[in-house]
Amino acid sequence: MRSLEVAIALGSNLPPSEDVGGGGEPRARALDFAVAKLEAAGCRLLARSAWIETPPIGVPDEQPPYLNGCVLVASELAL
Q: How far is CA 59 from CA 8, 36, 64, in A?
């Protein structure tokens, strides 16, 4: 079957809503969990950027900073 390469932007400024286990930075755990869910759904991880902290833009000041990144996956899900 033919697969399609897809770039997906990910971001989090809050801890995960469910216990995803592990230690470390909560936003990074949420993003790592999202990547694991993509892989569990059949996406093959081809590349992943570093997670980069950025300030919130266009939202109230009380928002915490975001952790953002991007993954490149191969998927048959979109075909």
A: 22, 29, 10
